[in-house]
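I have been asked to look over a protein record a colleague put together. The record follows directly below this note.
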Amino acid sequence: MQNSNTKHSEDSYATHVAYSEIAEAIDRLTYKSIYIFDCFQKKFEYISGHRFFLHNLTSESIIGMGEQFFFTFIKTEDQLIVNQANQAAFAFYATLSESECKSYTLAYNFHLVDENQNTVLVNHRLTPLLITDDGKIEKTLGMISLATSNLPGNITLTKDGDNAILEYDIETEQWIRHSKITLSKREIQILRFYAQGLTINEIASILNLSADTIKFHRRNLLLKMEVNTISKALAYATAYKLI
């Protein structure tokens, strides 16, 4: 007769394999780095093989490093930001039901440092993946990509279907609610054309508008999102599901 510990071990292994296969599938569809982190054991269960994230290390070696990866490759000045972001978010998650918890995504920026002390600012996004019966987050699914802003921090929580952003104020240690940016139909149109690689003149021709009008809308888009390039605007709009 199979004992309960063996059954639990088999179930855990099956869950691990299933999540890893899903992460691998997502990994094939995106340039971003995907990972699964076990919050109880403080280690990665899966991690992408993207170079800018691994710093020329193999996925296996980083999995072996566990939580030490963060202390080794995150810029020292940014480690406080990362700690505060995670602590504040997990405290917030603890107040939610399981279904609500899984609907939120945490995001923030930090610098990764390589062996030559070169840095790259990345955007880190994570969401609860597996929650225990007593409401504790056991595993998270994370994604790392190049940041769209120029500074570390920018700690936010967003909820699926909610037209608001919770922004964390490090000084007051409070989540502050803001409305998401609203784009006009014309701005969404123009962003989508930019995503297709069209030039200002090509977009103007399709929409039967002047190039100056397209430039006007582009300028407004950059101001709304507080970014300085259209590629960053596209990344912002995609991250916050605006288009």
About this structure: The radius of gyration is 20 Å.
